[in-house]
Request: fold
Amino acid sequence: DAGVIQSPRHEVTEMGQEVTLRCKPISGHNSLFWYRQTMMRGLELLIYFNNNVPIDDSGMPEDRFSAKMPNASFSTLKIQPSEPRDSAVYFCASSLMGQGMGGYTFGSGTRLTVV
Amino acid sequence: AQSVTQLDSHVSVSEGTPVLLRCNYSSSYSPSLFWYVQHPNKGLQLLLKYTSAATLVKGINGFEAEFKKSETSFHLTKPSAHMSDAAEYFCVVSEADSWGKLQFGAGTQVVVTP
Reply:
């Protein structure tokens, strides 16, 4: 398995533009998590899905952020409009619930810079 | 509610000497505990995990951690540091009823000097 695949690896965009981050989880995993990492706040859970259904989106900063998981093999995190304070590394992770609570695999992340 | 506290934000060790990274947790239920490592500009890699089996857990790259319920601790150790161990390390807790949601510690930056 190629692991959790995120794209793009790097994204530089202008303030006000729409940004879409993509994630392909490990085949067979039924839970997917989006995290954001900054120097100031560390790793923050934004939202997670179980069997493609959003379970908890309380970590989503505001309405500018939205996430979807249309099927078991794909998820997106969208920011519209983007702001400089959204600059961070965004990680996607997947796991198989019920399997010893340990199968979390992280992608390599998307480094977002909003100028 | 679950939380995790990493007691040191930075640790500096000499190559070949032992490494100790301290972690205390708080959990309402039987927790699962993990250590992840993040090398510069890389993603997070699982080092080891505790899920209510043996309290001494061995992981990759010579790391191990001991779950001590009485002390609510899950410290990470390695007998002999290598230059490639320079990275940031995260202690993570997850509760059985939290749908697998992970709670990350603030991280410990490890520097290894020659």
